[in-house]
Specification:
It is built from 18 helices and 24 strands. The longest helix has 15 residues. Helix 5 crosses helix 6. It has two domains: 273 residues, Rossmann fold, CATH 3.40.50; 270 residues, Rossmann fold, CATH 3.40.50.880. With 556 residues, it is an alpha/beta fold. The chain binds glutamine. The site of glutamine has 10 residues, from strand 20.
Length: 556
C-alpha cells in the first residue's frame, strides 16, 4: 500500500500530551500489523536538544544511532518498541542548516532562498520519508497552533494535505477546560483553536479533546458541528491513572478506526493487544509499594523521564508500585544524608553535567555503599560512585573527574596531581564544539560472566531486544546507548578490582569500562551507559528489573 500520513498538531495550551497521543496512534496501528514510524518536528532553532538545559524541554533522549532528541521519542519507543533514528527528530535549526548548506554549495545558484518554497520543501521532504517504506508515517509537530515558529510546518502540512489527498489525515489535540465556578466544561477554546488551524488552510479530520471530566454526547456534537468534523471523529482523552491506559482508551473510542476510515482502508477487526492488556492488569493489581530515591539536581518531572518510566515499568513487572522520591543532590550533606534517604529501599544516582550537585551525589554513594542499600548509578551517577570509592576506599582524598576541573583546574593548577579517576576520553581531547560531539548512541559491551549484571541480563528472554547475545568467541555481549564525554580512567582499573569494585562490562573496541559493581553488596552497580533509553512497556529493562527486585527483597 502507498504510505499514509498522519499529522498531529496541538492547540489551546502546551503539555496536553501530544506525544502520548501520537505514540498511542502508533501503537494501535502497529497492533493492526502496519509498519509504522513516528517522528517529531520541533520549531526551535537549536540543531538538536542536546545543548538544552533540562529545565527547557525535559530530558534529552538518545537514539541508537546517536541522535540527541526530544523526550517524546522516548514515549514512541516505549509504547511501540520500534527503534527511532536521527530521521525521527527534526528541528527548525536542522531544516535551515540543510537549506543554508545547500545554498553555500551552490545548489540553488541564481535563486532567492525563501521560507516558501525552500524551507517548506525541505520540511515536506523530511515529513514524507520517501527513502524508507512505511505503511504509516506519524508526524507530531511541537508547540501550539498560532506560534510564529511553527508557521512553516503548518504550511508544509497544508501543502501535503492537498497533494496527498486521502492519503493524509490531520489529528488536532485541544483542551476542554472545566470551570469550577460555573460547573461547566467549555468548548470555546477548542473552537478557536480549530478556527486558527482553518485560517492556515488546514481542516482537521479528527479532534482529540483533552479533558479532566467526561464529555457527554451533546458536548461532542457541539464541537463536531462547530468545527466541521464528524461526530465519530471527536474523541475525548480524559485523565487516566496511567499514560499506558491511553492507547486502550483511544481504541475503545475508535480513534484508529476513524483514521482508517478517513483514509479509506477497511477497518476490520479490533486487535486484542493481549500483552498490553496483561501489562495493564499487572499495573492495576500492583498494590505493594517500593520507595526509590532519585538523587539528582533537576527538580522537574520530565528531567529524568526515561529513568522514572523505567522504574515504574520494572516495578509493575515485579508486582509493585514504584514510589519515586526526588532528592536534591545540592542539599545533601554528610549530616543530613541519613535523614534524606530514610525509608528508601534503593536509590538511583542520576546522570548529569557540570559541577553543581556532584558532591551530594558522592555523599549519597558513600552512604548507600556503607549501609548496603541497593544503588544504581547512571552515567554521571556511575562516575560519582567511582570517585567516592577512590576517596573512601582507595584513599585518594582528592579523587575527582576531569569535568570538575574544566575549564578552571584551580586551586592546584594545570598539570596538577589530582587523581582524575574519571578522565576525558582520548577521542574527546581535541573537540572544541559542544553540540553533538559526545560519545553518543549504542555501543557494544562485553559482560563478565557470573557478575550480577550478567545475571540480570540473562533473565531477559532470549527473544527480546534487550537480551545478551553471544559474540564470535562466545563472549556475552550487550548493546546500550551512551551520552557522555568522560570515562573511567583505566590507569586505576587494577586498584579498583583489587579493592572490590569490579569492572564487569567493557567496550571491546576501545577497552572502556562501561559497568562497575561491588559484588559483595546487595546491589551496587554503576553503568556508563543509559539503560533507561531502551526500556519499553512490553520489555522492561533487565537492569531495572533486577534493581527493583533487590529493593523489594531487602524490604521483606
Ligand atoms: N557529564 C558526564 C560526562 O560527560 C556524564 C554525562 C551523563 O551523565 N550523561 O561524561
Amino acid at each position: 500500500m502507498n504510505t499514509k500520513y498522519i499529522f498531529v498538531t496541538g492547540g489551546v495550551v502546551s503539555s496536553l500530551g501530544k506525544g502520548i497521543i501520537s505514540a498511542s496512534i502508533g501503537k494501535l496501528l502497529l497492533a493492526r500489523g502496519y509498519k509504522v514510524t513516528i517522528q517529531k518536528f520541533d520549531p526551535y532553532i537549536n540543531i538538536d536538544p542536546g545543548t538544552l538545559n533540562p529545565y527547557e524541554h525535559g530530558e534529552c533522549y538518545v537514539t541508537e544511532d546517536g541522535m540527541e532528541t526530544d523526550l517524546d521519542l522516548g514515549h514512541y519507543e516505549r509504547f511501540t518498541g520500534i527503534r527511532t533514528t536521527r530521521d525521527n527528530s527534526i528541528t527548525t535549526g536542522r531544516i535551515y542548516k540543510t537549506v543554508i548548506d545547500r545554498e553555500r554549495h551552490g545548489d540553488y545558484l541564481g535563486k532567492t532562498i525563501q521560507v516558501v518554497p525552500h524551507i517548506t520543501d525541505e520540511i515536506k521532504r523530511r515529513m514524507l520519508r520517501e527513502e524508507a517504506t512505511f505503511d504509516f508515517v506519524i508526524t507530531e509537530v511541537g508547540g501550539t497552533i498560532g506560534d510564529i515558529e511553527s508557521a512553516p510546518f503548518m504550511e508544509a502540512i497544508r501543502q501535503l494535505r492537498w497533494e496527498l489527498g486521502r492519503n493524509a489525515v490531520c489529528v488536532h489535540l485541544t483542551y476542554v477546560p472545566y470551570l469550577k465556578a460555573a460547573d461547566e466544561l467549555k468548548t470555546k477554546p477548542t473552537q478557536h483553536s480549530v478556527k486558527e488551524l482553518q485560517s492556515m488552510g488546514i481542516q482537521p479530520d479528527i479532534l482529540v479533546l483533552r479533558t479532566e471530566r467526561h464529555l457527554d454526547d451533546t458536548m461532542r456534537l457541539k464541537v463536531a458541528s462547530f468545527c466541521n468534523v464528524d461526530l465519530e471523529c471527536v474523541v475525548q482523552s480524559e485523565d487516566m491513572p496511567s499514560i499506558y491506559e491511553v492507547p486502550v482508551n483511544m481504541q475503545r473510542q475508535g480513534l484508529d478506526a476513524a483514521i482508517l476510515r478517513k483514509i479509506g482502508i477497511p477497518v476490520g477487526e479490533t486487535p486484542a493487544m493481549k500483552p498490553w492488556h496483561d501489562f495493564l492488569e499487572k499495573q492495576r493489581n500492583a498494590s505493594r509499594e517500593v520507595h526509590i530515591g532519585l538523587v539528582g539536581k533537576y527538580d522537574l518531572q520530565d528531567a529524568y523521564k526515561s529513568i522514572r518510566e523505567s522504574l515504574n515499568l520494572a516495578g509493575i513487572y515485579n508486582d509493585v508500585k514504584t514510589k519515586i522520591h526526588f532528592v536534591n543532590s545540592q542539599d545533601l550533606t554528610t549530616d543530613n544524608v541519613a535523614a534524606q534517604l530514610n525509608g528508601m529501599a534503593g536509590i538511583i544516582i542520576c546522570p548529569g553535567f557540570g559541577q553543581r550537585g556532584i558532591e551530594g551525589k558522592i555523599i549519597a554513594a558513600e552512604y548507600t555503599r556503607s549501609h548496603d542499600i541497593p544503588t544504581f548509578g547512571i552515567c554521571l551517577g556511575m562516575q560519582m560512585m567511582v570517585i567516592e570509592f577512590a576517596r573512601n576506599v582507595l584513599g585518594y582524598k582528592d579523587a575527582t573527574s576531569r569535568e570538575s576541573l574544566t575549564p578552571d583546574p584551580s586551586p592546584k593548577g594545570e598539570g596538577s596531581d589530582y587523581h582524575c579517576v574519571i578522565d576525558l576520553m582520548e577521542e574527546q581531547k581535541n573537540i572544541t564544539q559542544m553540540g553533538g560531539t559526545m560519545r553518543l548512541g549504542a555501543y557494544d559491551c562485553e559482560l563478565k560472566e557470573g557478575s550480577k549484571t550478567f545475571e540480570a541480563y540473562s533473565q531477559a528472554k532470549l527473544s527480546t531486544p534487550l537480551a545478551l547475545r553471544r559474540g564470535v568467541g562466545g563472549e556475552a555481549v550487550i548493546s546500550e546507548r551512551h551520552r557522555h564525554r568522560y570515562e573511567f580512567n583505566n590507569q586505576y582499573r587494577d586498584e579498583y578490582e583489587a579493592a572490590g569494585m569490579k569492572c564487569v562490562g567493557i567496550n571491546p573496541d576501545a577497552d572502556l569500562v562501561e559497568i562497575v559493581e561491588i559484588p559483595e553488596k546487595r546491589w551496587y552497580i554503576g553503568t556508563q551507559f543509559h539503560p533507561e533509553y531502551s526500556s519499553t512497556v512490553l520489555h522492561p529493562h533487565p537492569l531495572f528489573m533486577s534493581f527493583i527486585k533487590a529493593c523489594i527483597d531487602g524490604k521483606s
